[in-house]
Amino acid sequence: MIRAIVRKGIFHHGDEFVGFMEGWRGVLEDLTLPLQLKTVAGILPRGGTILRTSRTNPAKKEHGLQQCIVNLDKHGVDALIAIGGDDTQSVSLKLYERGVKVVAVPKTIDNDLSGTDFCFGFDTAVSVATEAIDRVHTTAEAHNRVIVVEVMGRDAGWIALYSGVAGGADVILIPERPFDIAEVAESLKRRHDRGIYFSIVVVAEGAKLAKGSGVISETTKTDEFGHVRLGGIANVLAAEIERRTGFETRAVILGHILRGGTPTAFDRMLATRYGVGAIDLVHQGRFGQMVALKGTEITSVPIADAVAKTRCVTQELIDVALSLVDSSEQAVPSH
Ligand code: F6P
Question: Which DSSP category does 102 fall into?
């Protein structure tokens, strides 16, 4: 993405670039990296970002947004391209409302920004999760075990649903469909009654109990955007499944493994198209917009719309998952 932005900007518009390090912290504290052709050479297969990142929220610091504007002015920034998910883009929107010329690019494995079909990073995370599910199948089957695989995704079940379907999971639990642990245990028992002595349960880190009081995580710590640090529901679920069914059950928490390694070809292509789309928006003077993929076309949507609400898994995808199993062994809670 950064490579595409810099190359199109320099080759076709004679632009100059400065990168701000560590997300909004760099804009707030004036941490910069000159971005030239040589800076972006060879980064296509690299995961993460050469600019690094952080969960800094300038809106939470005294005069933070104003300080960002001062630092942007100091570097003579004519346009700011902000790459990130809903937290990043919520700050983009605030700066845009204060007169900064911002263009946004949707990059999050959670795939939960509204107005776009796919966010950059999602496909890579799904590929890694699917491969992991394929691998744990071996142990589940060989040892007659239930294995609960936890994937990231915050409040959306995109990674869980995609990797769960692609990896042939028997139960998929997503935040959009609060679940009943008794039903999960019963459906696993019915599967065993049919003579299949192993099962794979994929659970999104943000999945919730139907009769619970919110997310199940190992910590209640929050970040600067007010989000609880998720992770750990698989451990709780595995213990409860074992207790209720008597089947030996293990938990595998994939966590940050999903955010590492080399991006898929799909993500590289998407990032390149988004990068080119972002620089085009800048030169068309269309600020306050986020590049987006709609069907097969690159388009744009107002940042305000993109961050207005979490984009949840669609009913059509849930129906696909449900179509693959006997209705007594529902892969995704249907209500
Ligand atoms: O938003 C992306 C994401 O990977 C979520 O899926 C996950 O809950 C969170 O970030 C983890 O954040 P951190 O690396 O700060 O713990």
Answer: E
Q: How many residues does the chain have?
A: 335
Residue 244: CB partners within 8 Å, gap ≥ 6?
181, 182, 185
CB atoms within 10 A of CB 322: 16
What integer is the mean pLDDT of 282-295?
98
Is residue 331 within 8 Å of residue 173, measured between CB atoms?
no
The CB density around residue 256, as the number of other CB atoms within 10 Å, is 9
Q: Among this protein's residues, is 134 annotated catalytic?
A: no
**Spacing, Cα 154 to ligand 1 middle (Å):** 7
Residues 94 and 66: beta-carbon distance below 8 Å: no
Element spanning 92, H or E = helix 86-97
Question: What are the strands, taking DSSP E only, across 145-233?
Answer: 146-151, 171-173, 199-204
pLDDT tens-digit series, residues 25-37 = 999 999 999 999 9
Closest Cα to residue 17, out of 32, 28, 29, 27?
32
Most informative mutation of 110, 128, 203 for ligand 1 (most atoms within 8 A of CB): 110
154 CB within 6 A, ligand 1: yes
**Stretch 285-310: mean pLDDT:** 98
